[in-house]
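Hi all, posting the design record for the shared folder.

TITLE: backbone redesign
STEP: 1 of 1
STRUCTURE INPUT:
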């Protein structure tokens, strides 16, 4: 399970680096960089991205 999770996280980080490109999967989904990255360029935690941090 750890290897699979690592693969998913690495794919997400890679997608964030290319988010501004026209063919970016995240861009096609309508996800903007400021919705998943903080002001310092750090990826938010998955709980913050999913909106579960207030539960």
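Okay, here is what came back for every position:
SEQUENCE:
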């Amino acid at each position: 399970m750890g290897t699979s999770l690592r693969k998913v996280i690495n794919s997400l980080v890679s997608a964030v680096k290319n988010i501004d490109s026209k063919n970016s999967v995240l861009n096609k989904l309508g996800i903007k960089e400021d919705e998943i990255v903080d002001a310092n360029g750090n990826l938010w935690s998955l709980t913050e991205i999913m909106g579960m941090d207030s539960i």
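COMMENT: DSSP finds three helices and no strands in the chain.
Let me know if anyone wants the other runs.
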